[in-house]
Amino acid sequence: MRYIVGQNRGQVTAFPETIDEYISDNNPVQFIYVFIENLDLGKAAFIKPTPFREGRPAYNPKDLLKLYIYGYFNKIRSSRKLMIECRRNIELM
Asked: How far apart are CA 16 and CA 19, in angstroms?
């Protein structure tokens, strides 16, 4: 697939070993991640779950859906506010 790929959540960092270790197991972000990863976007009525061959690669629709649901849970409706959250909030990294 030809999507823009973010950093691996299991990537080793200075301390602790992974970013996931900063997020508790009962955090809603963990549920959102597992739920969306196991979702078949084709069956969920997403019109174009596969990327185009031409132009710049798109972001993975699953990543965008995770971000949208996170915003809904946290009452963040603005795409600009979500962009700021992506830069400052470890839950979204």
From this structure: 7
Judge residue 46's burial from the number of C-beta atoms within 10 Å of its C-beta, 0-12 exposed, 13-18 middle, 19 or more buried. Answer: middle
The residue written with tokens 């993975």 in the block is: 60
Average pLDDT rounded to a whole number, residues 17-37: 87
Q: Which positions ≥6 away from 61 have C-beta within 8 Å?
A: 41, 46, 49
pTM over 0.85: no
Q: Give the separation between CA 30 and CA 25, rounded to whole angstroms.
A: 7
Token reading at 75: 């009452």
